[in-house]
Design a protein that fits this description.
mainly beta, Jelly Rolls, six-stranded antiparallel barrel, five-stranded antiparallel β-sheet
């Protein structure tokens, strides 16, 4: 079953995309990275074991410029992990952890615009890089494919070092037996 393509043409992360857990063998997932003819960027495939349908939990935060300091007791996150904020019109969306202050606090980088209401909800995702599909770069990079032969919660595309063009992550999930 072909899954929707995830395409980026800027330094960014795509949305998290969960494989279909209702298939007989949901761990059979082939993935491919392709690039536009003028691509000059670095791309990585990332995944998480965390459930993208997890219930959001309450958190508090304060913004100073582009730094959002999040208080999330017992967060268990590392630099590079991801949070998805909801119920705040200025900061809804996904943000990667930039610094871990302590066991209850971390920071993310956000736009320097709009007030922070101080209370919202979040989901958190511990992020892993695919073993063979991380930091694929060039001008343009070479196409590469790989797979997940184990159950994951979701996957996404990350683009860094963007100069031009686009990267597309395609997924194909087998039905299994």
């Amino acid at each position: 079953m072909k899954l929707p393509d995830l395409t980026l043409s800027a330094n960014a992360n795509s949305r998290w995309f969960p494989p279909n857990p209702l298939l007989v063998n949901p761990a059979s997932l082939g993935i491919a990275l392709t690039f536009s003819f003028n691509a000059n960027l670095t791309a990585s495939v990332q995944y998480t074991y965390d459930d993208p349908m997890q219930d959001p939990r309450a958190m508090t935060y304060a913004r100073a410029g582009t730094v959002l300091t999040v208080t999330d007791p017992g967060h268990n996150l590392n630099v590079g992990d991801n949070i998805q904020i909801s119920q705040d019109t200025n900061f809804n969306g996904g943000w990667d952890v930039v610094t871990v202050v302590d066991a209850n606090t971390y920071t993310v980088t956000v736009p320097n615009a709009g007030p922070a209401n101080g209370n919202a909800q979040l989901q958190s995702f511990r992020v892993f890089k695919h073993a063979t599909m991380g930091n694929i770069g060039g001008a343009p990079p070479q196409r590469i494919d790989g797979n997940f032969n184990w159950q994951i919660g979701a996957y996404r595309l990350q683009v860094t070092n963007y100069v031009a063009g686009s990267a597309t992550l395609t997924g194909q999930q087998g039905k299994g037996y």
